[in-house]
């Protein structure tokens, strides 16, 4: 799967999944635009991609703010003239409390980071994709978006919103040459998750590499027939 001359934006590029995905897209020839809210972390995890693949690192971007997102999209279009792929990876988790005990601030934060970011980033790139008659948008939802567990209500609601946004965007854009899909991981095998759940069977968790492989596929021409899908990537959980 070649991404030669394709402009690929990855949000949350400095995270455990984002950095792995960035390396895979870079190896496939993509013109990388790597976005994160922390410049120092972005440099720490993705600086080698600048030399290897000519990646552009754009840090200190708050993808929950429309002004910030619109400025980012304008900058990329001015520099490259097109946007071929948007990978929405930015996300976070909070849980452990019943819905009636969940702080409003926690609800707002989860909806902002997990859902509003997808809403804003997609809205910023879609006009350019419509103009060029092509594009791919792939977002990270979660298995919790299908069924909430006790103590997980706010997070599950935010990830369910990602799935519903994916479906709506797909219905609106599939006749314009644009594919919109999402991936639903279960627990991802990362160092923070291992520390948080030391007694779990890590071998059953899905790895960032496995998820990134699906991201690459959904962003490729081989996925041309897939629209509005929420694809489970659970590992062996």
Task: State the helicity in percent bands.
Answer: 40-55%
Order of helices and strands: EHEHEHEHEHEHHE
CATH topology: Rossmann fold
* Strand arrangement, major sheet: 3-2-1-4-5-6-7
| Number of continuous helical runs | 7
Radius of gyration: 17 Å
Please report the distance between the alpha carbons of the first and last residues.
Answer: 29 Å
Instruction: Count structural domains.
Output: 1
> Major sheet: size, sense and barrel closure?
7 strands, parallel
In terms of DSSP E residues, the strand content is 5-15%
- Low-pLDDT ranges: none
How many E strands? 7
CATH superfamily: NAD(P)-binding Rossmann-like Domain
CATH architecture: 3-Layer(aba) Sandwich
Secondary-structure class: alpha/beta
| Mean pLDDT figure | 96
- The coarse overall form would be globular
Assembly state (oligomeric): single chain
CATH class: Alpha Beta
Characterization of this structure:
- The protein has a single domain, classed as Rossmann fold, CATH 3.40.50.720.
- The protein is built from seven helices and seven strands; from the N terminus they run βαβαβαβαβαβααβ.
- Strand 4, helix 4 and strand 5 form a beta-alpha-beta unit.
- The mean pLDDT is about 95.
